[in-house]
Amino acid sequence: MQRTFLNAKLHRVTTTASELDYEGSCEIDGILLDAAGIQAFEQIQIYNIANGNRFTTYAIRGKENSGVISVNGAAAHKAAVGDLLIIAAYASYDEHELKNYAPNLCYVDDNNTLTRQSSAIR
After folding, report:
1. Residue 85 forms beta bridges with which residues?
2. Helices of type H across 26-121
3. Coil, strand or helix at 21
4. Under DSSP, is residue 63 helix (H, G, I), strand (E, B) or coil?
5. What is the DSSP pairing of strand 69-72 with strand 54-62?
6. What does this protein do (predicted)?
């Protein structure tokens, strides 16, 4: 049996751009993608702390150390510049894989610079 668990989370990143006239997706600083283990074009869930919107899109790689978090296309209606977001990626695991399961939780400062990583919520 496969079960779906949180694989990675970028916690409280700040939206730096909201581009309606764009093909779609969420551009994320490449350093943050690597830290979280999220791949370009991987499905992500976005939870907007500012307004409660929750939506699905995919990640695209942004310039490293840019701090970019750009919500694009139709999703731009769901996030404004300055909104705090949680970006999550999930994966399916079988019972054997769950024995060594640990999520990759990434935390940032006000500039979307990685400050720490953990596998447990404090």
Report:
1. 13, 48
2. 30-36, 95-98
3. coil
4. coil
5. unpaired
6. Catalyzes the pyruvoyl-dependent decarboxylation of aspartate to produce beta-alanine.
Instruction: Note whether 90 and 106 are within 8 A (CB).
Output: no
**Amino acid letter for position 57:** T
Record the pTM. Answer: 0.96
**Domain residue ranges in the chain:** 2-118
What CATH code is assigned to 2-118?
Answer: 2.40.40.20
57 labeled binding residue = yes
What is the phi/psi pair of residue 35, to 5°? Answer: -60, -40
CA distance 89 to 41: 11
Q: Output the six-digit token pair for 23.
A: 């093909």
For residue 61, what are its two tokens? Answer: 């790689």
Enter the tokens of residue 101: 């399961």
Query: CA–CA separation, 82 vs 63, rounded Å?
Result: 19
Q: 38: closest CA among 100, 110, 114, 111?
A: 114
56-107 pLDDT tens trace: 999 999 999 999 999 999 999 999 999 999 999 999 999 999 999 999 999 9
Quickly list DSSP for 61-93. EEPTTS--EEEEGGGGGG--TT-EEEEEEEEEE
Residues marked as catalytic: 25, 58
